[in-house]
Design brief:
heterodimer, A: MetI-like fold, B: 255 residues, 3-stranded antiparallel sheet, 23% strand, globular, disordered C terminus
């Protein structure tokens, strides 16, 4: 218990002192995860909208497949991306393994299905409510999708927060393709694992506190958004 | 005005899943009349209107407009739903949205005139989805007016509305009819049908039971289902037509 208290107070001291190593790790974590969320959003939201507004043979199967991908184990994603980016892999020529770019790719693979599946849950009821009316208003497909984005924007923010929450807290994939290299690919989750193994509990605890605060901020944002939506409804 | 009419439905059938919900529909809707589609709940009134408006694809038969080559959605006609579907933006923006094919200045101008026409300019800046049901229906009707359709389908536009709003809507519907827009509306409100209809299409269990002039329909309906419907819905006893032959459904259309 004394160890825990000492580690906690030391961790708070590191945070207050704006320890450069600590903030470097936090900065890289945010850069990797925010970039991954941005890319996953650009891919996932239009795909979610397109899936919600169209019907074709195999549509139901595709939806089940996308839902299943939400449960992708991060280490499996890490392994696949590792094989793709490794020197002998098809993308090995780009030399991306053990770089932040590799970590971004792994997180994009991990959270894009989440963005598609969760946005489908936003777009599907919207399409059910608005679809026939938009057809009657003679609205073309791009404008239809834009309208769905506008009508669902508050729910879509929740989707993106959930994706960010999954990305920032993920360890398996970024560890495998990033390698946890100091000053290069070390992010909060991989640093916590490493520093704990090394017995450097203060830094691990400080990072843990930041990670918890971020998770709290994300959940608080989702909660406040939901309440705001209810008030507006 | 009604250049795309008449609308001819020939041997039309609509299936949803395995269930055949409209069957053997033969109907001709011409210029001039305000057509009311009558029938009990679940008879197929909404499906019939949606099919005419191009939202549902028939599984058999065809729909033929005078000048439209196929049964698809067209700006020449539109449909106002029982539960108006409005976007989460101002009433004015909902109408300008529907006029996306026009230049911006004209869009706003026509949208304002549409709200004036429906006597609800005061709602222009209100968020449409937060308006009362009656106000939403007025905005939906104003939007339809602004689109200048040749044919307007109205699916039970006054259902669940208070008498005052219903009366306002009826006046607007009559106004549309007088302006030369072909109105086809469904209802199961007999009094309303009597006030508005020039001709009645009676739908029974997915088939056209009868299509006749309103005065004739209310005086002496021809099909058994219509007799039962009128007897049930009206306090006044109904006399069957002398030619009534006892068949449940007839396909007699006005051309």
């Amino acid at each position: 218990m004394t160890d825990f208290s000492a580690a906690l107070s030391h961790a708070l001291l590191l945070l207050v002192q704006l320890d450069s190593q600590l903030w470097e790790i936090i900065g890289l974590s945010l850069r990797v995860s925010l970039t991954a969320v941005t890319i996953a959003t650009l891919i996932g939201l239009p795909l979610g909208a397109a899936l919600a507004t169209s019907r074709f043979p195999g549509h139901a199967l595709l939806r089940i497949f996308v839902d299943s991908l939400m449960a992708l184990p991060p280490v499996v994603v890490g392994l696949v991306v590792y094989l793709l980016l490794s020197r002998a892999g098809p993308l090995g020529v780009f030399g991306l393994l053990y770089t932040p770019t590799a970590m971004i790719i792994a997180q994009v693979v991990l959270i894009t299905p989440l963005v598609i599946a969760l946005s489908l849950q936003v777009f599907t009821p919207l399409w059910l409510r608005l679809g026939e009316q938009l057809q009657l208003l003679y609205v073309d497909k791009p404008r239809t999708i834009l309208t769905l984005f506008q009508e669902g924007q508050r729910d879509l923010v929740t989707v993106l927060l959930a994706a960010f929450g999954r990305a920032i807290a993920e360890i398996g994939a970024v560890m495998m393709v990033g390698g946890n290299i100091d000053h290069h690919t070390r992010v909060m989750t991989t640093a916590i694992a490493l520093e704990t193994n090394k017995g450097n509990l203060e830094l691990a605890m400080a990072l843990g506190i930041v990670l918890m605060l971020m998770a709290l901020a994300v959940n608080l944002s989702v909660h406040l958004l939901s309440r705001w939506r209810r008030e507006l409804a | 005005m009604s250049g795309i009419l008449p609308l001819k439905l020939r041997n039309l059938g609509v299936r949803i899943g395995e269930q055949r919900l409209l069957d053997d529909i033969n109907l001709t809707l011409g210029v001039g009349q305000l057509t009311v589609v009558l029938g009990a709940n679940g008879a197929g009134k909404t499906l019939l209107l949606k099919t005419c408006a191009g939202l549902l694809k028939p599984c058999q038969g065809d729909i033929q407009w005078q000048t439209e080559p196929r049964a698809a959605v067209s700006p020449a006609f539109t449909l106002v739903f029982q539960q108006p579907v409005l976007l989460h933006r101002s009433a004015l923006a909902n109408i300008t949205y529907a006029l996306h094919h026009l230049p911006k200045a004209e869009r706003v101008n026509r949208a304002k005139r549409a709200l004036q026409w429906a006597d609800c300019e005061s709602l222009a800046e209100s968020t449409a989805t937060r308006l009362s049901s009656g106000q939403q229906q007025l905005v939906a009707l104003a939007r339809a007016w602004a689109m200048r359709p040749q044919v307007l389908f109205l699916d039970e536009p006054c259902a669940n509305l208070d008498p005052e709003v219903s009366q306002r809507l009826e006046q607007l519907i009559l106004g549309l009819h007088r302006d030369g827009i072909k109105v086809v509306m469904s209802t199961h409100n007999l009094a309303q049908a009597q006030r508005l209809a020039s001709d009645i299409v009676f739908v029974d269990r997915g088939r056209i039971g009868e299509h006749s002039a309103a005065s004739e329909f209310f005086r002496a309906p021809r099909c058994a289902a219509a007799v039962r419907f009128l007897a049930h819905e009206s306090a006044n006893p109904v006399t069957a037509h002398p030619e009534y032959d006892g068949a449940d459904t007839l396909n007699r259309g006005l051309v």
